[in-house]
Amino acid sequence: MINMAVIIVAGGSGTRMGSDIPKQFLLLGNKPVLMHTIEVFKQYDTQMKIILVLPKYQIDYWTKLCIKYNFNVDIEIACGGETRFQSVKNGLALAKEFDVIGIHDGVRPLVSVSTIARCFEKAALDYTAVPVIDPIDSLRQLEGDESKALTRAKIKMVQTPQVFQASIIFKAYNQSYNNFFTDDASVVESIGYKINLVKGNVENIKITSPIDLKIAEFYICNT
C-alpha cells in the first residue's frame, strides 16, 4: 500500500481581494475556501495525510474557524516561511514517512477528485506528475520592444497538485533557493528529473481576485 500525503500551502493575504481577511479564509458558499480544498483530498482518499502550511500568525485564526464551522478533518499544521520554497520545505519536514507527496495551493478549492487521482497515480508509477490545461487565449512573447505570437499547441497552463515520489521531492528541496523556482515542478526539474504532465480540470482556478471568488461560488452552488 502506498502512503500518500498532501502539503496544502496557504500563505496568501487578502490584498488583491480588497479584503482584510486572507483569501484562503474567505467564505465560499457556506464555509471558508480552505475547508473546501482540504475536503476534496479527503474525498479522494480518507486516509491521506493532510499537512497544512500557514503563516504562524494565522494559525490561531484557523483554529477558531475550525471550531466555528465544526470542521473536524484531521490535519497537521506547519508554520510557513518567508518564501513558498521555505513553506513547502517546512511542510515536508512533517511528511518523512510517506511514499508519494503532493503539493497544492490552498486557494484552489475546485480541483477535481479525478485530477488528484491522475496526479497521484502517475507519480506513483513514474516519479512525477503535474496537472495542466490548454490555454484559451492567444499568447505573445515579449522580445525587447517587440513581440511575437506563440504556438498555443506548445504551451500548457500549470495547476496543482504537483505530485512526486518522496525521495525526489526531498532531494529537490534539499538544495538552496533560486529565484528561478516558480513552482514545485521547477524545483524538481532543476535537479534533472523529467516532469510528467497529466490532464487537469479547467475549473481548478487559483482564487486571487474577486472575480475568481465569484466564479468559484458559481461552481460550488451549481454542482
How does this structure look, described?
By secondary structure, the protein is of the alpha/beta class. The protein has a single domain, classed as Spore Coat Polysaccharide Biosynthesis Protein SpsA, Chain A (Alpha-Beta Complex), CATH 3.90.550.10. Strand 2 and strand 3 form a beta hairpin. The two termini are 32 Å apart.
Features:
single chain, 223 residues, alpha/beta, eight-stranded mixed beta sheet, two-stranded antiparallel sheet, 31% helix
In short:
This protein is of the alpha/beta class. It has seven helices and twelve strands. It has helices at residues 33-44, 59-68, 84-92, 113-126, 166-172, 184-189, 210-221; strands at residues 4-9, 27-28, 31-32, 49-54, 76-79, 100-105, 128-133, 140-143, 146-149, 157-158, 162-165, 197-199.
| Low-confidence region ranges | none
The overall pLDDT average reads: 94
| Main beta-sheet annotation | 8 strands, mixed
The CATH class name reads Alpha Beta
User: Which CATH architecture?
Assistant: Alpha-Beta Complex
Number of helices: 7
Rg, nearest Å: 17 Å
Percentage beta strand: 15-25%
Helix-strand sequence: EEEHEHEHEHEEEEEHHEH
User: Which structural category do the helix and sheet elements fall into?
Assistant: alpha/beta
Please estimate the helix content.
25-40%
Total of domains: 1
* Overall morphology: globular
Give the CATH topology. Answer: Spore Coat Polysaccharide Biosynthesis Protein SpsA, Chain A
How many beta strands in the DSSP annotation? 12
Distance between the termini: 32 Å
